[in-house]
């Protein structure tokens, strides 16, 4: 294989090639380091590249491979989002307000290392992971490999840009209001927000009042399943997410919905709506039972439930930073609003979570999967929100991405599957929403779509 083909092969295929000896771990790493040197000055997907330590890890991985040791990700280079601790490195959260370097790996990083992964670097985020675009005064703008005039999304925008441009085999992301699914959509990747607590958040447990989770952003469904197998605190129901990903799904009852949770009046764009319709037709041809049905979204969920947890979560994050005065003005304004939300109110909201979930989940009494658009529109231009205030920015970005946050509140798994392109040539996707703890069905269905409508051969302009 050519080096470019190897870079885009995906983590699972690379692991197979490393085990077979058709490529070495140091050689694979150098492919990525070379691509980062060439491409990242334009894209700015990485906040820091850990070249020296990664070379040591790759050499050690190769020794283990030569000795016959086999681990799921032995020698595979993986990128880590800069809201997750890597020992010896600062976790900046996209801000200049950060503290000293982390003394230990976060639990998800520890598990990736235990599976043999080589930690390639830390990817860029918006300040305090606030936005669905990845720009900050401290670190500049991260650009979309499909069109560098546009954002890759956020807050896992650096992870999305790195994988899309072939600068990492796979990347860890986090998702508190769609932050895995949004950049996965606009970067043409598969991404899954797993069930809450499936992948450890330690040492940042209960981030954003239980809204945020860690998960994978990847080239293939198998790659994401492999990430879940090696990081999950509890395994798949049948023991393996990879097994689920390669298993044909049984005929499923699938609900199609383009309804936006109230009070938003956003309407999905033509390409986004068409993706749902086309998915329904494809899945019907594959033997599934397709119906048009909407989840029962509570009318007060956004203002009474989602936003308070979000605002207060950002406020709580700000309290951990030693140099709050260095935060951007817009971030400080956002956090001040969060400070007005009391512990008592948050406790009451959390107590009402079961009722909210029961109402939203009632659609799964009759359906196995719900399919929605992923985003309502394509990405925003770089700099579109400069000099905007906190609430104005929030209102503008929320209109683009209304379909994700509800499922952070319920905690259930949701994945985005690449679909086509909008009239601007930007990737589109559909969102698959599953029953609680049923990532396996989403992986199986997504892999079936991937098989008949493959997206992995697509490569962006900057790659």
From TrEMBL:
<protein>
    <recommendedName>
        <fullName>amidase</fullName>
        <ecNumber>3.5.1.4</ecNumber>
    </recommendedName>
</protein>
<feature type="domain" description="Amidase">
    <location>
        <begin position="28"/>
        <end position="443"/>
    </location>
</feature>
<dbReference type="Pfam" id="PF01425">
    <property type="entry name" value="Amidase"/>
</dbReference>
<dbReference type="InterPro" id="IPR023631">
    <property type="entry name" value="Amidase_dom"/>
</dbReference>
<dbReference type="InterPro" id="IPR000120">
    <property type="entry name" value="Amidase"/>
</dbReference>
<keyword id="KW-0378">Hydrolase</keyword>
<comment type="similarity">
    <text>Belongs to the amidase family.</text>
</comment>
<dbReference type="InterPro" id="IPR036928">
    <property type="entry name" value="AS_sf"/>
</dbReference>
<dbReference type="GO" id="GO:0004040">
    <property type="term" value="F:amidase activity"/>
</dbReference>
